[in-house]
Amino acid sequence: MRITKYIITSPESEVLPSDIAMRIYGSQHDINVKETCFGIIINGEEDEVADLIKEIRAMDPTGIFIKDRGFPPGDLRRCRGHRGGGARPGYYMIESESKLLPLISKALASEEKADPGPKETETIQKKRPISIKKLDEIIKEEIS
Predict the structure, then answer these.
(1) pTM for the full model?
(2) Cα–Cα distance for residue pair 43/25, rounded to 1 Å
(3) CA-to-CA distance for 59 and 77, rounded, in angstroms?
(4) 40 has pLDDT over 70
(5) How big is the chain by its Cα radius of gyration, in Å?
(6) CATH for 2-114, options being 3.30.1490, 3.30.70, 3.80.10, 1.50.10
């Protein structure tokens, strides 16, 4: 099944959309690519797109964002040329979302640094519910 995805970079990312496009053009994947004002639209078989996204994300894990798109590039239902011009439906949403990407990138980067994940040597102790006997003692102390 063919799927379509947006690839959008944070404005503060060192990776430019043109860098991503060149990586795709140079890859062995059979993917259709369309460069846009806000990033790149890719269209291809689901497994090839998934493999390509892994490669692209590795370029900047906290600065590259992937979003599903319901229509392939050039689809007449979305093409401005066939609709009489103007912004395509959804453009203003992507524009507003892209303004938040620097904040999201910073949050992801700080989370990545702050939480390296649980270590194998750490033991996670689960809290057990208080025993009825202990609860009864606490209630009696509070009442008296």
Answers:
(1) 0.70
(2) 13
(3) 33
(4) yes
(5) 24
(6) 3.30.70
